[in-house]
């Protein structure tokens, strides 16, 4: 009855074991190409140009380039296709979504005095999806090394048998919850495996802490499915000003909102004929939500009527994040009756408990951007942006927490400085604008394999009706990754080649 008694005491507590790792730090530190169709068509090379709502979010000085106020919105379809190779087997999955990805506006207040040095003030507001998490990954193959039993054993060894037993007067839900509140995530994994008869103790002593697997295998037929959804929205409040005809200065205050869900399901069959375990299914449903704050400072200088340079500082983003997790495990076992026949058992361990983890803090790295643009009068332009971000500076907090210190050490050892290069051009023929761009983003990982470099190109067209403008863009990118299915035990990795395709349309209205 000790678990029930402790449960009654700790019923209002939350789980104190963190489930955060380097993958979370990278996910919330990275950004995708987003924004208006014109911005996308130039692959985001807008740091020295301005005059675009998304350019304003990239370099806050850009809103002062607007000659009049403007409002606009962007919507379209985003898709991703993943080809995953796992122990020689190729599997494919894809996902697409239609949504509103950007909306914003800017007001311009011109100084009526012709003698004034400060020519205008601009105030802007913009909301855009800086990172979409919509994705499906399917992995399948015959693993000659490991089963998910290694994952559970890595957590179980060291956990006492007394903790993961269900005694009279207790039930699965109560014990699983009690373990999360008093022993942590690892003990919950041990409990799932023990109650599903995937592992057995080497001794029935309540103080036993060593376990063995009931699964025997040469190779295991594994299928792994991951579906993620959600977004990381950036809400920008902008202020900018123009000094004479040569200098634009601006600042942004940014609010960030995270809504992320990840569902994973691992299925295993193909165990040895003498294995007690014949089938395993492991399900995890993670939900993450959070909010953050950052700021930006930017400048654009006109060195001549044609040549412009820009510089932007993007501060770290300081997040407060919450995680919630639901798990279940089922196994199919065959027990030898001793007379040449077998009895099949199906065990489903489904606690129906939402693990609510304590709020944690994440500081993502800062970024600096230098930009150069050449404007050919009314005929067009060419623009280049260079950015640098040190992903190794991402940090979980509080740093006094031993788990977070370990994760921060992993981040600093595995991540690195990464540069990105963007170039874009625009050709204007009367009211029609033709656009194209290219971008290269270096890998943030020192091994340059876990997440590889990203290459992408973009195309676009726009038409200016006068008070209304209509822009359409297509951008394509590809990136390879090599990631383990799980962080411990079953750490075999799949190589995934991802291709991103986006078609966007923006409507702008001058005020």
Automatic annotation (TrEMBL):
GO MF annotation terms: long-chain fatty acid transporting porin activity
Any GO CC annotation of this UniProt entry: cell outer membrane
Top-level taxonomic group: Bacteria
Main location group: membrane
Residues annotated as signal peptide: 1-19
Membrane-protein topology: Multi-pass membrane protein
Alphabetically ordered keywords of this record: Cell outer membrane, Membrane, Signal, Transmembrane, Transmembrane beta strand
Pfam families (alphabetical): Toluene_X (PF03349), UPF0164 (PF03687)
Localisation: Cell outer membrane
Protein family (similarity comment): Belongs to the UPF0164 family.
Family annotation (PANTHER family): OUTER MEMBRANE PROTEIN NMB0088-RELATED (PTHR35093)
Protein name: Transporter
Organism from which the protein derives: Imtechella halotolerans K1
